[in-house]
Structures are given as C-alpha cells and as structure tokens.
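Objective 1b. Sequence-to-structure analysis of 23S rRNA (Uracil-C(5))-methyltransferase RlmCD.
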Amino acid sequence: MLQQGQQFPLTIKRLGINGEGVGYFKKQVVFVPGALPGEEVVVQATNVYPTYAEGKIVRIRKRSPHRVKPLCPVYDRCGGCQLQHLDYNAQLEAKRDIVIQALERHSRLNIEALDIRPTIGMDDPWHYRNKSQFQTGVKKGRVIAGLYSMNSHELVDIDRCFIQHDATNRVTTVVKTIFQDLRIPIYHERKKTGVVRTIVSRVGFYTGDVQLVIVTATKEFPRKELFVAEVKRRLPEVKSIAQNINGQKTSLIFGDETIVLEGEPYIQEVLGDLSFELSARAFFQLNPIQTVKLYDEVKKAAALTKSERVVDAYCGVGTIGLWLAREAKEVRGMDTIPEAIDDARQNAERHGFTNVTYAVGKAETLLPKWVKEGWKPDVIVVDPPRTGCDNALLKTILQVKPKTVVYVSCNPSSLARDIDTLAKQYRVEYIQPFDLFPHTAHVESVAKLVRK
C-alpha cells in the first residue's frame, strides 16, 4: 500500500476524465496532474485513499513526444485549462479516449462494435470563449481579477487569457484600471467588506457587441455614474452595462437582481442564420464557432423530412429547437427555468417560426400529458446538464418510444450511464465527440440512438 509522501516510478497509460495522467503502481490506480500518456515519471504520493492515490510529478524520466510548452504564463497556477501542455491533435485523440473510458466504466455496451468517431476540433483552438467571469481582489494595493488557483484560495491575476476572445480580455483589463483610478471598493471575501465581486464580460462574435456586468455584494455602488462615464469613454464597444447584486455567501456568480446602468438590456449574437438577444444572465454556448458544428451534427442525426414532431428537452433559450424547426413539422420545447422559456418564445417569434411552442416544466411531466392528448414525438433531442438526464425522463422516453433520440452531452460519464439505460430499446448508431473547450478536459458529444 502506498504511503503519503512516498516517491515511486510510474508509467502513464492514459488521460483521466479531468485531464490528469493515469498509471498503476502495484495494481493501485494513481492520478497525476500534468503527466501525459506514454511518459515515465517519478511521482510523490500527495493523497492516498483506499481505492486510488493522487500524486505530483517529481521528475520526468521519459517525455511524451506530444508534450509542448504551454502558451499561458499562469497555466500551472490558474487551473482554468488542464491540457495546454499537450499538442492539440493529441488532445483531440485523448478526448475520444475519454468517451471510450466512460463507456467502459458506466455501460455494458460492446464498445468494439460502436461507431465512435474522431473528435471534431477547431482550426484555431485559441480565443474561442465569448464570456469571462473573473473574480476581483486586491494584491499589494492593486486591483486584480482572475480565477482562484486549483484547490486553494489564491486569486491568480489574469492579464490575458489565451482561450478568451480578445474583446473580453481588453474589457476586463480596462475595467480593473477604472476601479483602481476611481478607488471603488473591492469586496473582501473573508472580511465581508467592499462592493465589487466579479467582472463579467461577453462579446457577440458576429456583431462585436460587448456586454459588461459588474457583480456587487451590495445594491450601493459607490461612484457608479463616474464608473459608467469612464467605461463609455474608454470602451466604446460596450453596448450594455449592468449591475447584478449578489450578497449571498455562495459559489454562484449571479444574484437574482440585475439593473441595467447604461445602454441596451441585451446584446445580439448570431449563430448560422439565427440571431439571439442575450440579456445579462441568459445562458448561451461559450464557443459560438464550434456550437454551429455541434448543432449541424444534431440536425444530421435527427434526419428530419418536414413530417416529424420533435421534442427539445432541456431547451434553454431554444437554440437547438430553432436550428431544427425549418425541417420539422412541429417542435415543442420545455425547460424548468421560466426566464429561459420567455427568451425561447421571443427568439421563435422574432424568427417568424409558427411551428414551435415552449412550455415551463419537466419533460417527464409534460411528455406523458402530450401523449395522452394524442401528440406523440418522432424525435426527442436531449441536452441535459452535467448530471445527465433525470431518471424519470429516461423512463418516459422508453414509454413514449420515439423512433430517434439525439443525445447532446457535456459529460461522457452521464452519457454512458444514460445510453446504457436506453439500450434496452435503442441501438447506438454512432457517437460523435466535439471539442468545444480546447486545452481543457471537457468533451461534448452527439449520440444518435435509433429504436430497435
């Protein structure tokens, strides 16, 4: 049995689901952040548990030919990315392997017989994120903004994030300077003093519009008018300035109240031939370039002929349903968040779709009701949160028996578990992994399931 602090040699076999190297020491699995498949490393055990251990690299004896120098100077401290030290093509292969590992661990499917396609990546895997949420702090009298370091309470100041769109980097940097110049008090987590907690900026890739949201711990925002005037002067590209109030001790960024301080209440973004209005708290895909590829894959998998009834479960602001609406007879979407459904209805109306309706509620409640009323879907598209589909929804799908289920997943483990449940009645035609977040361990997939 390994002891904490013990040093030992290890050969790395593959990447784990969080991007860490995985090896075996005397049959015990060891996770080593920063180690790559094929590398021989000397590791020090940092945590030892009954079924596994965690370690850190002391020395690399044999380097992977795919190891590269990370572009970002704070990469090893920030924790926002996990794979910048791995060549991009190798990242894409590793992500396909992460999907395979999840299926091995969480399903009873015959993996050899499955069509698991090569990961679809980006031509340029940098500057792809349209939104940044950086916590603020003060270090040596200077206002800083960034992310908390992995497993610690050290705030890492990020001057330029290489996976963020340059517009959001610029806005964050200038806003830090304005806070400094106007001496606006920054919130202190431990002392519970000060005002400004988070700088949130979002850019419309297609329109160039920028939205700025300042999250404050109090409704009072000292020198607010001066702040707005300075933003307008120094950042003319900002079309919407808002304040969100979050006085709670919580890991959630946003509170319930948002006040528009200047400009429009939303910015515009375009995906394909659809345009969307994004209010301060509206959820929207973080990588618009890859989202178009992902949604096109959903359209291909759904294989609509204008005669199908489609359900868009977990529909959010309606993006996937609207993407399919032209090829469908009718689309019905549902979500438990009322604001998202309001946005979805407005989006459908603005694009002139008359064959799309949205309801607030859970799919597992609404679907049986619709079937009872004589409305049965041919295709169900699910795009659940990381936890996967609700068990009640999976049971409902098995009862309703649509001919096709298109599963959009942001977590291979819950995807594997859910398609294993559906495998009683559905055959997995293929799984297509996507890289929506280059340099991180995240992998999205579209799985097409057809009724047996």
